[in-house]
Write a structure and sequence with these properties.
about 20% strand, two-stranded parallel sheet, alpha/beta, single chain
Length: about 230
């Protein structure tokens, strides 16, 4: 709750997040129950909002509930399936964070992803932390996901990577083929189908390694990779 409050009130943070947390309501997790806060409506500015003296009504995008609680415990208690899951965790720089990149954690997520659902996972930098990035991909696959790596240049971080995952049995090559045929039906400010297709292309050797280990609760190898073997080029 304190972090959410800071993001909603600190002048520098509100400038960075474009006041995304304005009017956000947070409900604490009490005892064993999970109680989401009141719904928050999310809107996108109309197409003419950037033009002087021209305004368009905002477009309703989604309803969001903010909960501040341990993700692992949340997955143990919550019920239901989701069509889209975005796993945007801090980097695995400590034992507590590394468990959120474990095979066991991903298997818990899999139980809540709908059969045709998609999941995106923040996976560190494939350039500065290559072995960590590839370990996350292997761990996702060991949990039963089809995982497609992709990357983009983030101005404040450099070359950054994620995995796009599905729980159905289609092959990675088939999923990649579907991405190349992607068409957008919603307005975007930057992303185009061509740009997204370019993000699944990696340079020679970037996805190759002799390491075959996966990250588990019993053997959190990702912690060693991230803290000792990675970031050598920084």
């Amino acid at each position: 709750p304190a972090m959410t409050q800071l993001a909603a009130t600190h002048p520098l943070l509100t400038a960075i997040n474009e006041n995304a947390f304005a009017d956000a309501r947070v409900t604490r997790l009490d005892a064993e129950g999970i109680s989401p806060g009141p719904a928050r409506q999310i809107y996108q500015p109309g197409p003419d909002s950037h033009r002087p003296r021209q305004t368009s009504p905002p477009v309703h995008l989604a309803e969001v509930r903010i909960m501040n609680l341990d993700a692992d415990k949340y997955l143990e208690q919550v019920s239901g399936l989701w069509d889209v899951i975005i796993v945007d965790m801090p980097d695995p720089s400590s034992p507590e964070l590394t468990k959120l990149y474990s095979r066991e954690f991903y298997m818990k997520i899999k139980r809540h992803l709908s059969p045709e659902g998609m999941m995106a996972v923040q996976s560190t930098s494939p350039y500065l932390a290559k072995e960590s990035f590839l370990c996350i991909g292997r761990t996702l696959e060991s949990a039963g996901f089809t995982a497609i790596p992709y990357h983009d240049n983030v101005p404040s971080f450099g070359d950054w990577g994620w995995y796009l995952c599905t729980r159905n049995a289609q092959s990675a090559s088939k999923l990649t083929h579907e991405i190349t045929r992607l068409k957008f039906t919603i307005p975007t400010r930057y992303l185009t189908p061509e740009v997204f297709c370019s993000q699944i292309v990696f340079g020679k050797g970037m996805l190759e390694t002799s390491n075959a280990e996966i990250n588990t609760l019993l053997f959190p190898v990702l912690l060693t990779l991230y803290n000792h073997d990675a970031w050598q080029l920084e």
